[in-house]
Design a protein that fits this description.
There is one protein chain. The chain has one domain (2-79): RelE-like (YaeB-like fold, 2-Layer Sandwich), CATH 3.30.2310.20. It is 31% helix and 28% strand. The chain is built from 2 helices and 5 strands, in the order βααββββ. Strands 1-5-4-3-2 form a 5-stranded mixed beta sheet. A hairpin with a 5-residue loop joins strand 3 and strand 4 (63-69). The longest helix has 16 residues, at 20-35. The protein is globular, with a radius of gyration of 12 Å. It starts with a strand and ends in a 6-residue tail after the last strand.
Length: 85
């Protein structure tokens, strides 16, 4: 599947660049999503109230939030930062 980035996820990635270990983790998660967005482990959770939107942990604080659009063959990366700020 093709990976597409939202404007917000691009801004989030800029914040993540100050933490090299998190950047590596995000890159690994995105590579995993390209191969199989439903692969587990690492675990993922479907977000309540959204259709085809999922979350995976980057670390204890940060999440990678993405939407799978199967009809388009696309995965949209929505966020790569904390949902607590």
């Amino acid at each position: 599947m093709e990976i597409v980035y939202s404007k917000q996820s691009i801004k989030d990635f800029e914040k993540l660049k100050q933490y090299p270990s998190l950047v590596e983790k995000v890159k690994a998660l995105i590579a995993l999503l390209e191969q199989n967005p439903f692969q587990s482990p690492p675990s993922y959770e479907k977000l309540v109230g959204f259709e085809n939107v999922y979350s995976r942990r980057i670390n204890i604080q940060h999440r990678l939030v993405y939407e799978i659009r199967p009809n388009e063959g696309v995965i949209v990366i929505i966020r790569m930062w904390t949902h607590y700020q």
